[in-house]
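User: structure tokens for Dihydrolipoamide acetyltransferase component of pyruvate dehydrogenase complex, please.
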Amino acid sequence: MAQEVLLPKLGLTMTEGTIDEWKFKEGEFVKKGDILYSVSTDKLTNDVEADAEGVLLKILVPAGETTACKAVVAYLGEAGETIAETSAQTEKTEEKPQEQTGKGTTQSSAAPIREGVLASPAAKKLAKEKNIEIGLIVGTGPNGRITLQDVEAYLANPQPENTAEKTKTSPMAAKLAEELGVNIQSISADGRVMKKDVLAAANVEAAVAPVSNNDQQPVKVNALRRSIAANMTLSWQTSPRVTYTHPVDTTAMKEMRDKLKVACKDDNVKLTFNHIIIKMTAKVLMEFPDVNASFADNMLTRHTHANVGLAVAKGDGLIVPNVKGVDTKSLIEVAKETEALIEAARSGKIAMEDMTGGTFTISNLGPYGITNFSPIINQPELAILGVCDMVETPVVRNGQIEIRPMMNLCLTADHRVVDGVMAAKFLKRLCDLLENPYLLFT
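Assistant: Done. Predicted tokens:
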């Protein structure tokens, strides 16, 4: 009997993947453990091994196409075996919506937690107690995570009888129908009522940018760009943020780096300002535990160590690998690990564990001549540091005008936890250390 080949879920936040290349052609024999195909997610490219042997009977998702996790992408079986034409792939990836009642609960006697829904334990527990299909709730937490407050809000504001009763409706469609005054019951849809059905019923056309003769046709962006778009939108909607800017005289830091570069030759390490800033930041994070923390479901988690991420350009996007436990490592160790992560990130060989667990992020736009910017927080972290260009600037020292290499540091902080005074103290402490870098070794 033919065996299904499924697209694996390679991380907690992975929802889809793009088939990069099939290593075998239809009709070829595949051994268990052979690399069957490669798949790209929003962050990584992975080789997927065959977990069974047999002839590659049929490829359902050709190279270059994107599909959901756990979807059937191919079939393995015996030579000459036929595969029934079914909608197995659709059945595995598409959830069947349940009918809602006017009280915001489903008609089923139990409310199972749908596989693949990202929700906090408290949210899942309350949804189960109230017989709510948790997949119907729009999450406002990091990466679309459904929080306890989302479930409570859903219970406190159930859909009206005339828009929800006995009508299969997506949450977005129900919300839009209420805003536009559209009666869901009057909509005739093929299956579940979706956003487009409500817009059509309200005679509202989606805004589409006109394409001139000189414009290229719109194309779907890659998985990395879609992930960046989703994460940045989530962060913008989640965090009440404020950006604080503080100038730093980098004279002493440059002198220290020049001397340490000579001392590090035997370690085969090219010391950079990024390495020093990462190490300095970790030291300050240990002094400000509320900055080295994450916030979700009204719970503050202070992290034991500083796992500092560095935004790395990859193609037309950014990914953020992080060095674990920077506060416990020497400057040389930090430098080696940072450069190894940058190389792995740009070559597409970065491991998932290197992309998760970060507690703070640094984004350096100095090499591009940027002197001030407001970086966006990498959820669920509470702050991010923007590093700017070093510019020869006239400053007053001891009553005399001198030319010094000045650099702005821009700290964006989540005001839900990190208020102005704390952010200012954190940034001042970091600037003091960078202007007196030998304090790093105290």
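User: Anything notable?

Assistant: The chain has eleven helices and 18 strands.
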